[in-house]
User: Fold this.
Amino acid sequence: MFNVFPTARLRPSPFYASAVAEGMTAASIYNRMIMPTSYGDPEGEYWRLINGVSQWDVGVERQVQLKGPDAGRLAQILAPRDLSKCQVGQGKYVPLCNHRGTIINDPILLKLADDLYWLSIADSDIWFWAGAIAAERGLNVEVSEPDVSPMALQGPKAEDVVAHVLGDWVRGLKYFWFRETEIAGIPVAVQRSGWSKQGGFEIYLKDGTRGTALWNIFKEAGQPWGIGPGAPATAERTESGLVSVGGDTDDATNPFEVRLEKYVDLDVPDDVVGIHALRRIKAEGVKRHQLGLILDGETPAPLGFAREDIHHRGAKIGMMTNCVWSPRMKANIGYALINADVQAGETVQIQRASGPVSARLVPLPFL
Ligand code: THG
Assistant:
């Protein structure tokens, strides 16, 4: 074991002390922050997410705030998805692309007011990007990072816990919709969202000094439902087909290649960043696509993010971007990013460090 020293550039989240107190045993770095990834019982943490309710420090999902008269215009310029009908209190999943149509982030956009938006980002620096584009386009909008940190409650029993704390109105929240409120005087936004397909909520803490207090309120309220600490789970998200931008994508991946087509609207205005490239890519047809892989063998392989080559009939057709043991499928599963002419149903060979392994290509999601 070694010690991690949080610094101004390796920022702990407001829930970091709680994560340590809960017995955090592993962490990663995301958005130049510490992201707890395990509490010592990966299998138990997985089943708690599938069957119960799991509490996550996801303060690394940092917010890019757009504020001012042109906030809505900037949001639309950044996102190749039609936002014209997005209402105050609504969130939307928006792939962000560069001018070549390459996906650079996939935040949840929250519309807090006509002149106030947050982009709840994945792992890349969007403040520079948004600020530069706003300035180049001469927009009247301020790009900043607010004091806002998400904590997630995920799993089939999350709704009962959140309703116990906040009231039954949360049961009526639609997917990605949110409401700003207070919990024991702590300012929060409560959204039906989270990086799993097991259902749940995210509580966006709006005062970084109150992290421990907020954590403990949900920890205590969740006792009757067996709440416990956890983290975004590679196994569950892979089974569920969720995309991890930067993990499953490379520096040439467009949204069509990784099943995000339904979040792209090609008829957004011409000033949207990347839209010309996306229209051209769509017209020419995508060269690669993302499929699931079910690997041969019945013993859990080590977690893999190595981007191993995939071969089909003796030729390299692409790469495996992640690989994890699925407790529900009892198999090692992963994602393939491969030539679009090789379809589900085919058998391929993955060039693993331990030697070649056969795998079957299947549609996503697995479950
Ligand atoms: N919550 C918050 N911020 C985040 C994430 C989150 N920022 C980083 C990262 N996760 C952003 N990426 C995603 C990816 C997928 C989803 C949410 C954020 C997601 N997708 C669903 C799906 O693909 O099935 C639903 C999308 C839809 O239908 O609109 O939930 O988790 N605060």
Remarks:
- The pocket of (6S)-5,6,7,8-tetrahydrofolate is lined by residues 61, 93, 106-108, 120-122, 150, 193-195, 202, 242-243 (CB under 6 Å).
- The chain has three domains: 16-62+147-237, 63-144, 287-367.
- Residues 288 and 340 are 4 Å apart (CA to CA).
